[in-house]
Write a structure and sequence with these properties.
The protein has 230 residues and is of the alpha+beta class. It has seven helices and eight strands. It has one domain: Alpha-Beta Plaits (2-Layer Sandwich).
Length: 230
Amino acid sequence: MELNGLLAIWTDIDKDFIPAFREWHSKEHMALRIATPGWYVGHRYQGMHGAPGFLIAYETSDAGDLAGKGYHGSLNQPDARTREALSHYRNSIRTIYRLVQGAGPALPTDAPYYLTLRFDMTAGGGAALQTLVDKHLPDIVTVPGVLRSRLYEIDDAISNIVTEERKLYSAGPGKQPFLLTYELARPDVCESREWKEASVRYQSNERRVDHQDLFALEFTIYAPGKEKAR
């Protein structure tokens, strides 16, 4: 089953609060979120090499599941612990995406490293975007260590819904409408000759990458009975 919705939050956390954040986020917050209908898996990644401190990502059956009444009801009634935790978020970007295309097989386990590229396209960049779909995605997953890749596009309407939680940490969607993700077996995959050759093979002046960030997997939670959905 292909999961077509993605909620991604890039954020820093106040350094002194990080242990309490991990405790709350792993044991309370993610468990609550993943119980929402249509939600399948949640990941938390730690930033590497200058990336934001954390990336929090949830995959859903469709982006519309991220606009459901159950989820937004929770977002508009945060409890005291949630309010406290969110007050320690810094430099947060929260964006909801729809899957455009993916490449690579279903994985037997979660990839240990995750690379995100946020980008936009200049006017007339439709052909370059189609090249990403038709050529880059199937090409990049042939690189040793690249397990899977996906191209997403922002869902502006859902991303811009304002909730009480979002107000607490001033998290809006990023300016870049597209997201490329790469699930990696090793942190040094991007340093290999094969990666560099594949990365430049379909480069285009119409594509402007503003953020390229590498993360290490820290925590995963699946909805009960949905471990095989990916």
